[in-house]
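User: Assemble these into one structure.

Assistant: Restating your components, then the assembled model:
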Amino acid sequence: MRNFLFFFLLFSGTLVKAQEDAIFTAQVRHTIDELVEFVALPNDALVSSDIERNLRWLTAKFSERGFNTSVLPTEGQPLFFAALPLKEGKPTLLFYMHFDGQSVDPSKWDQPDPYKAVLKAPRDGRWETLPFSALNDSIPAHWRLYGRSTSDDKGPIVMFLNTIDLLRKTGKELSYNIKVILDGEEEKSSKPLPKAVQQYRELLEADYLLISDGPVHVSGLPTVVYGCRGITSMTLTTYGPVRPQHSGHYGNYAPNPAFRLATLLASMKDEDGKVVIPGYYDGIALSESDREVLRAVPDDPAAIHAMLQIRQPERVGAFYQEALQYPSLNIRGLGSAWIGPEARTIVPATATAELDLRLVPETDGTRLKNLVRKHIEAQGYRIADSIPTPEMRAAYDKWITVEEGSVTDAFRTPLDNPFGQHLVRTLNGTFETPVVQIRIMGGTVPIAPFINALKIPAFILPLVNPDNNQHSPNENLELGQVAYGLNALKAILTTPMGG
Amino acid sequence: MRNFLFFFLLFSGTLVKAQEDAIFTAQVRHTIDELVEFVALPNDALVSSDIERNLRWLTAKFSERGFNTSVLPTEGQPLFFAALPLKEGKPTLLFYMHFDGQSVDPSKWDQPDPYKAVLKAPRDGRWETLPFSALNDSIPAHWRLYGRSTSDDKGPIVMFLNTIDLLRKTGKELSYNIKVILDGEEEKSSKPLPKAVQQYRELLEADYLLISDGPVHVSGLPTVVYGCRGITSMTLTTYGPVRPQHSGHYGNYAPNPAFRLATLLASMKDEDGKVVIPGYYDGIALSESDREVLRAVPDDPAAIHAMLQIRQPERVGAFYQEALQYPSLNIRGLGSAWIGPEARTIVPATATAELDLRLVPETDGTRLKNLVRKHIEAQGYRIADSIPTPEMRAAYDKWITVEEGSVTDAFRTPLDNPFGQHLVRTLNGTFETPVVQIRIMGGTVPIAPFINALKIPAFILPLVNPDNNQHSPNENLELGQVAYGLNALKAILTTPMGG
């Protein structure tokens, strides 16, 4: 029967399909082997000599695939740039990925060396290490490769390189000109990037930016992300007696800075978690079609609530995705004197709240911080930039120190951008599943200023599994995602817009 | 001229006065020398062998003065008891003092050994150490003796002993029967005392209790204290997501425990610092004559405000002494996640407030804690005794853990108690200055349960200077206070009530 099938395939048009499948499987295996090789180069951006070794590897690997490459100096670690020879009349895609990784603490990993990738298969509820020869017969989708940067973000780089191979081997033509910019210190906040955009503007010129970083939606479905929230921070410190005082002698007399801070913070939000500072949500308008896209995301509230162990969420939005369309005002830390066994019977001298504000494109970080300052003043406070002097304290009752963190902007490409729609259609056609569209991610990527400075539509195309332990010990890449990455990139690179 | 004066005095009734003065001065000097000897015995209640040496010293010194003495076993350090042979028809005074001291860290003292007392005089803004022979000609009131327990509380014990000597030498008769109970672990909270009252009730029987511990009013005037506030504590912990969450992914969705805690705390007090929990101040009524006594205390608000560096105090009372007549609700500590350089972009899992509640006799500690609990429930919380389980969290939205500290009661003897009035008159007549009457001290003394259990009117009669560095390095006793102590005790012991 198998023989019959083989002959049937041999003499039908499907032969090409079978050959293509073999080529594809070999390329998946090659991707894994090449990723193991790349992961073996430690890539903590604090160690310049390691970054240089990674740059040499990238230069070799991109050159092999016919790219012109260069290493672009910056104020920090260099950027790696590569481009295929440009052809007239085709739109240009700029890919952004990063080759540095989070620092590692080997003692916390379940393998001797986080840079020596290991293959693991799930067996009876645990992960069993296997030799790579176990992949010779087949490549089970649920096995995983464990090692630093397997997912974040060397995996996508190697998938990209192997997609180029695949196109060559199957004689497919690129529908776009291709440029690639690889960041060498994303995990250290990509500080040199915004300046680099100015310096290398012509080199980076493109029609669309595709960012491959971060995981697909928790459902595992193909995912396109149109933006992510920005962030800024504020530190508020209120004052009581200049030194902590005996709570017997001065309780009921010296103003308590912790009560003042509590009252101030409580004045900023309502019971639903909504910010009540006037103007905080100004400019945000969700259309019915926006809401449709948000509602289409297959989030499972019951699963989220079980994971967080909460009975009900805040009500800034009617549901999870809607909540992320608004800026947040989050207390990330609170402190005054001591809690626990160290607690002392005192009226504390100060109380401090650390706030972070996640931003959306409609809510500029500086504007929001000014609204918070205005609100604080409206509660009767004088704002000081540093600790108030005795003279200031004698002249005015309620002092607060406000320190402001820097602003990392949000970015968001409109949902109706034609290239975004094209991406979604292409993925949908390739995988024959719904494609998850994320209007904006809750978190912040440090390259947002870079994205905004390029002034071209940008999209995040995640390629790795959601449970990849990114930034943690035991980072991993599910092997099924390698096949997903090659297929997704192949489809995107070969499907012309409107094609 | 001096000779003439001498002869004049010699042949007038004033001769007795001059002789008395000489005897008095010699007794002051003897007090200082005996205190140096007593201070030389380390007295940290954690070291039982040291406490035993102090007990032997006390036994010898009280016996010398004709007291019957005994060492009373307790569950902790023994108590020392002494009594002069009782005489029929005289009221009995029970004196309470303590002979243990705060632990010392010699490295923080300006003298080699905190137990080797040194004499110091103010010279050009600093304290100069002098040999004790410098006291041979005169005993300047503003020189000081530095050493652990010089003020807290061995000084008063030695002043008491030397007053007995003084009365003998000047042929004065005691107007009272005298009992003395000396605590061996007051600085460790006098835990054995309440049980000891039950066990030694007959031995301790008396008409009035006089406590000599703590400093006179900051004005330096003779002071009688009628009571002190009690204390209890509560620890409140609110809950957000079960583990800290990324503030980008879950800010605006996972409830923030710090905002919840802030809102809850803010609901407990108004802008003036007054507790708004119904019933919190119930039962407190200040008569016009109470207010008169409070207003007569020569506090200097400007000096207090300058010391605290506050422009205006809370308004629980119209002025400092009035504020102390009410229970407090003080945040002594606040904590959630991290502040400062450690702050992380998270929604914290928990937030904790440490509260202390200073009590007055009208506001029972358990009743106040129950009012706070009721208030918390009225804000929509379920109260748990420990960390809520996943099942509890799934069943109900707002959980809080409330842990309660033990209650130390307040005590307060009525201002119009005849013996209190007698004490004030006696001090006023002796020193010809106003006497400061403190209706209730803000702080808490651990012997309050002992005082309340004895069921006799109790008064605190402080003998030492307000700036004695009690509980701190460089504890000291101003020598003028020794003369004050001998004079005050002499007058009190020899002036019969109504006499």
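The first strand of chain B starts at residue 68 and ends at 72.
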